[in-house]
Amino acid sequence: MKGLSREFSDILVRYAALLILSVGGLWIFYFIFTPLTVYPVFFLFNYFFGATLEGTTVYVRSIPIELIKACIAGSAYYLLLIFNLSTPAIKITQRLRMIFFSFLIFLVINIIRIVVLATMYISGSSIFDITHLLTWYAGSVILVVGIWFYQVRIYRLKDIPFYSDLRFLYKHSILKRN
């Protein structure tokens, strides 16, 4: 019974953390990842083009590149966290390692994406608009799911986000017929 109680409390803590972190429009993700995204983008452009930075806008050759919330992709980090915290049976140290590495992978790829797109914009590439829209709408989702599948494979996860928790709750509920 003690193990059962621990599993119920584990579910409660994981989903409470998800709810708490979503309060206020995911501000915590933007607070953390805005500088972690803006400064590397600025440093790269400054190294190659002599850029300037004002707030979250990088100026390259007097062309403004504003890094808005959609560029920072706070909701993508939250989706990675949702996948992680909605999956049971992960030890806390492994869970923290997975969160750190998934965020790091996404951050690096997102910075590369921003630099490539901004370079296309600065150079007046004719395919900038379609490339920007594709990476914005589909690219981020595919990337997040890809990172999650990569982690499932690397960490040999057997449980399914949400489903495994729901199956456990149903199995131990009064709704289950004997």
UniProtKB/TrEMBL annotation:
InterPro entries: Exo/Archaeosortase_dom. The chain crosses the membrane at residues 12-33, 67-86, 98-122, 134-152. It is found in: Cell membrane. It is a multi-pass membrane protein. Its main location: membrane. GO terms for cellular component: plasma membrane. GO terms for biological process: proteolysis. Keywords: Cell membrane, Hydrolase, Membrane, Protease, Transmembrane, Transmembrane helix. One of its GO terms (molecular function) is peptidase activity. This is Pacearchaeosortase. It comes from Candidatus Collierbacteria bacterium GW2011_GWB1_44_6. The lineage of its organism: Bacteria, Candidatus Collieribacteriota.
